[in-house]
Design a protein that fits this description.
There is one protein chain. This protein is an alpha+beta fold. It has two domains: 4-58, RNA-binding S4 domain (Structural Genomics Hypothetical 15.5 Kd Protein In mrcA-pckA Intergenic Region, Chain A); 65-231, Pseudouridine synthase (2-Layer Sandwich), CATH 3.30.2350.10. It contains seven helices and 17 strands. It has helices at residues 6-12, 18-26, 86-89, 119-126, 146-154, 187-194, 226-231, and strands at residues 4-5, 30-32, 35-36, 43-44, 51-53, 56-57, 65-70, 100-101, 110-116, 134-140, 157-158, 161-162, 167-170, 175-180, 199-207, 210-211, 221-223. The strands form four sheets. Strands 7, 8, 9, 10, 13, 14, 15, 16 and 17 form a nine-stranded mixed β-sheet that branches. A four-stranded antiparallel β-sheet has the order 3-2-5-6. A two-stranded antiparallel sheet has the order 1-4. Strand 8 and strand 9 form a beta hairpin. The longest helix is centred in the N-terminal third of the chain and has 9 residues, at 18-26. The structure holds uracil. Uracil binds next to helix 6.
Amino acid sequence: MALDRIDKILSSQNIAARSEIKRMIRSGLILADGKRVMRPEEKYDPETTVFTVSGKTVEFSRFVYIMMNKPAGVLSASSDKHAKTVIDLLPADMKRRGLFPAGRLDKDTVGFILITNDGELAHKMLSPKSHVYKLYEVQCDRDLTNDDAAAFAKGITIGDIECQPAEMKLTGNKTALVEICEGKFHQIKRMFHAVGAEVTALKRVRIGEVCLDEALGQGEARYLNKQEIIDILSRKHGIP
Ligand code: URA
């Protein structure tokens, strides 16, 4: 594992914001292998160094889990020659090698995207077999009805693909919440198209039991806390 700045290492472990960590370094509260860290620029190998913060040992995890509020116009990809990606939007202190978005939201879809370097968790989160439900706010071009909700509950067929039954709750004339645990290409848009409605706006607001943090502005990101890392794989579901 490569060396990294101490303030970056500790902020990735959700200890505190980088500015707060700098303050703690100045106050002598941070030790690396028992020696006082003097400057935030000091570099360490996080896998072999024991850090203590205010006397407590930090349990280092090499995986990071970031919630981003994806804006429209940005690709859910690690890199792209022409367009901006969600990884490009991360602030410099969150960027590190190996990060990728777990699953895709369309370029025009907004909301919760998980960015991580943990392939196993991403696979579990995305596999329909894991029953991790994703909740979407949908706006359509026509009034939605209880018949639409019934069709979703029965299971929509898109082309030759049968989707699993999905819960839809009407929230307004043209708006609904929909929950699915599959991730077929353009699935929500194609499910609505199958019942004769076109999606005009789409936002993902929850993955597993973790809701999009509404304090995050468009394009902003924050680390998940320990409980959220567990809750992101929760099978519990149901639209409130
Ligand atoms: N379904 C879609 O159609 N688009 C998305 O971005 C996500 C789910």
